Amino acid sequence: MSFLDSITQSLDRYPHSLIVELDDERRAATGPELTRRIADVRAALRAGGISRGDRVVILSRNSIEWACADLAIMLEGAIAVPLYARQTVAELAVILRDASPALILCETDEQRDAITGAWDSCPPIRRFADVEPHDRPLEERVLPVDRPVTIFYTSGTSGEPKGVVLSMRNVTHIVECAASHLDRLMAGRPATERVFHYLPFCFAGSWILLLSSLTRGATLSLNVDLTRIVDDLSAVKPHYFQNVPVLLDRMRSGVEQAIRRRGGFGRLLDQARRAHSARRAGSRPALGDAIGGFFASRLLLPIVRRKLGTELRALICGSAPLSDETREFFELLALPVLQVYGLTETTAICTMDAPGVPTRGGVGTVVRDVEMRLSDEGEILVRGPNVFAGYWNRSEATRDAFTNGWFRTGDLGEVDAHGHWHILGRIKNLVVLASGHNVAPEPLEQSLAALVPEAHQIVVLGTGRPYLTMLVTGDVDASAVEAAADRLNASLPHYQRIRGTLLSREPLSIESGLLTANGKLRRDAIARRFAGELDRLYASTREPTETVARA
User: Fold this and answer.
1) How far apart are the C-alpha atoms of 207 and 348, rounded to whole Å?
2) Would you tell me the crossing angle of helices 264-280 and 287-295 to the nearest 10 degrees?
3) Which range, 431-440, 504-513, 516-525, is most confident?
4) Any idea where the domains of the chain sit in the sequence?
5) Partner of 361 at 20 to 30 A CA spacing, among 89, 113, 255, 394?
6) What is the rounded distance in angstroms from the CA atom of residue 162 to the CA atom of residue 156?
């Protein structure tokens, strides 16, 4: 049974609210209501002449309408193309021309006007509000069992984004794998499974959670205002929710700063953390740390835990490496962070931490029927039912993405004797120094971020240069940054040491073109943007001594 069959069959079984929008109006839709709205969109697609294989773009924030449009498009045999509403008009125009959609569905008049202004030959555009109710039964179309169902455009850390074509087989397999892990997490399942969600559906991992929730009859509560996350969490009391590391890092940093403002509670937190680390290492904590940890567990940590939700069983995290410091912080709160590894090309998931046995510093084990191995260069290779067939309109890029039937992830990794995987960084991100040394920047950036939590971003640079430098953004103290670099350098070989720092108060952003749509670093663009400042920084010292400059 396909994931679409599972969802359509399950909707009528769940009369409670399956999707809730956490806005001022608090809109919600039950299973039968979703079925009716999906039928309305399907009727509108037919009236618009949409045929099997046509691409239909969805441009909107997360909403009930988004979910209904997506399911309607796929049920009609067309191909859904979800786009990120926060992308610039120029970026959207590039993707739209490549996808050649027969129809664009959007949320607002502003989105419609922006697209028509940027694309002279744009296809018909309809707002969700233009879809009229349809009260006649629809004749089901005969469709191939396995067919393309969606095209996700990758974030494009270098060059133009590419359309990843995912099939019914790809998605069905991953939804089933996700469900089996969630079944373990929700053992002794409550009457209604509650899921909190804030990540845009136009990213593959977020979309898989939407489909999994609908299949399982869980109530998916959508946060549409990031400034209200803490309040919405308290109201929803979810059992789990999906995250990216940057949000968890900020949550940890915010909580720690609030605690330290209360004087002695900061000391209790430090003692609790040291005691926890000692126990995890199999040793006995110092007496003072053990006592402080005891009082923290009685007086401090329960207060923090209640703010995040007393029903939470785990946090799910993917898209980028999570720092050990952040993971251990949530462990202190008795909140395991289950990490997931995958790419859009692997339908978002290759490995998952098993509930109850998260991999320390890793991303879990390979999911069912998926194979992973390392190339001679240490690159992770994947094959299985989750791997896409190719990129839209890019046969050469598709050929380059595979070697002997294995998909080349571009990620460096390692696997232990128990099958637990660890991600070391991106091959394309390697910094190649003038000396010939290759340095993976991600581990250094993670370590530095833990030492300078007030920084917005830290980017290690140095390709073609004599030594490594870093760009640090945000309102940070230069002496604190230099002290952090000194502390890290003490444990590193000479070629991995950070010898210079460029400070910029202005954080990198999507709008500036220095971050991708899902917040990843555009390293080539960053290096070009700060090339002049870096030239002056390197010119200011011929010897590898520590230097700090401001952009």
Assistant:
1) 9
2) 120
3) 504-513
4) 3-239, 245-310+312-427, 430-550
5) 255
6) 7
Architecture category of domain 245-310+312-427 in CATH: 3-Layer(aba) Sandwich (3.40)
The pLDDT confidence band at residue 545, using thresholds 50, 70 and 90, is: very low
Give the pLDDT score at 317: 92
Q: Are the C-beta atoms of residues 223 and 229 closer than 8 Å to each other?
A: yes
Distance in angstroms (rounded) separating the CA atoms of residues 475 and 537: 20
Cβ neighbours of 57 (radius 10 Å): 26
Show the 3-state SS of 470-486.
Answer: EEEECCCCHHHHHHHHH
Check pLDDT > 60 for residue 360. Answer: yes
Identical fold, 3-239 and 245-310+312-427: yes
Rg (CA), the chain: 24
- Residue range 338-350: average pLDDT? 96
How far is CA 10 from each of CA 6, 32, 39, 186, rounded to the nearest angstrom?
6, 10, 15, 18
Locate all alpha helices (DSSP H) within 426-530, ordered by sequence: 441-451, 478-489, 523-529
pLDDT of residue 547: 56
Long-range contacts of 41-44 (CB under 8 A, 24+ apart): 41/68, 41/69, 41/72, 41/73, 41/131, 42/72, 42/75, 42/76, 42/134, 42/138, 43/134, 43/136, 43/138, 44/126, 44/130, 44/131, 44/132, 44/134
Closest CA to 235 of 18, 16, 26: 26
Report the alpha-carbon distance of residue 103 to residue 124 in Å, rounded: 5
- CATH number for the region 3-239 comes to 3.40.50.12780
Lowest-confidence region among 128-132, 150-154, 177-181, 438-442 = 438-442
Specify the length of the chain in residues.
551
**With contact defined as beta carbons under 8 Å apart, do 300 and 269 qualify?**
yes
Element (H, E) at 119: none
Neighbours of 539 (CB within 10 A): 8
- CATH code of the domain made up of 430-550: 3.30.300.30
pLDDT above 80 for 158: no
Reported as a single tens digit per residue, the pLDDT across 362-382 is 899 999 999 999 999 899 999
Question: What is the pTM assigned to this prediction?
Answer: 0.85
- What confidence tens digit (pLDDT) does each residue in 161-171 have? 899 999 999 99
Judged against a pLDDT cut of 90, whether residue 470 lies above it is answered with yes
- Rounded Cα distance, 91 and 107, in Å: 18
Cβ atoms of 463 and 527 within 8 Å: the answer is: yes
pLDDT at 544: 46
